[in-house]
Amino acid sequence: MKARTRTLGQFVTFAAIGLANTAVYYAVYAPLNRWIPYLAAHVIGWIVSIIGSFLLNSYITIRTRPTWRGFLRYPLSGIVNVVGSGILLYLAVSRLGMNKDIAALLAGVLITPASFLLARWAITSGVTAQPETEGPGAQGDPGVRESASRV
Fold first, then answer.
1. Do 32 and 112 form a contact (C-beta atoms < 8 A)?
2. 145: which strand partners?
3. Could you give the number of structural domains in the chain?
4. Using CA atoms, how far apart are residues 50 and 61, in angstroms rounded to an integer?
5. Are the beta carbons of 52 and 24 closer than 8 angstroms?
6. Using CA atoms, how far apart are residues 127 and 69, in angstroms rounded to an integer?
7. Is residue 142 part of a domain?
8. What is the SS3 assignment for the chain?
């Protein structure tokens, strides 16, 4: 039961960070879009938001120090999100006749758990579990585990 509660808490935090990173993306994209081509602005906005997402989810959601290995794997969760939500969007609109806007929101909600699981896997790859940092006898930085490998 404790593991389920922890996973649910991580999922909620992951979703909140995702919303914040959408705002970060747009805050980078919108001003750059006025000065450089929109696709270049999009790529820069995505890079900034994925770095922020990785760091926030590492430290806050998973409570571990980021590793290069995790950083290199982390964009897979974004790719799964884009491809998976695209497939769900297509099926909802073309096969079920749903409204495009509602279908896009639903597809995003439905794919988020898979994206979360993949992001959590990416972040924790190469991390060695440490003793709990809360409660009596806790050791180490509060809520942050050391990583086994930086690469």
1. no
2. 64
3. 1
4. 15
5. yes
6. 9
7. no
8. CHHHHHHHHHHHHHHHHHHHHHHHHHHHHHHHHCCCCHHHHHHHHHHHHHHHHHHHHHHHHCCECCCHHHHHHCHHHHHHHHHHHHHHHHHHHHHCCCCHHHHHHHHHHHHHHHHHHHHHHHHHCCECCCCCCCCCCCCCCCCCECECCCC
Alpha-carbon distance of 89 to 96, in angstroms, equals: 10
Whole-model pTM?
0.73
83: Cα separation from own chain's centroid: 15
Give a yes or no: residue 83 inside a domain.
yes
- State both tokens at 23: 């705002």
Alpha carbons 29 and 120: distance in angstroms, whole number: 26
Q: Which residues pair with 64 in a beta bridge?
A: 145
**How many residues in total does the chain contain?**
151
Question: Does residue 69 fall inside a structural domain?
Answer: yes
Q: Which domain holds residue 7?
A: 2-124
Q: What pLDDT digit, counting tens, does each position of 95-146 carry? A: 999 999 899 889 988 999 999 999 999 999 866 655 444 443 343 444 444 4
Find how far residue 112's CA is from the centre of its chain.
Answer: 9
Q: Please check whether residue 134 lies inside any domain of the structure.
A: no
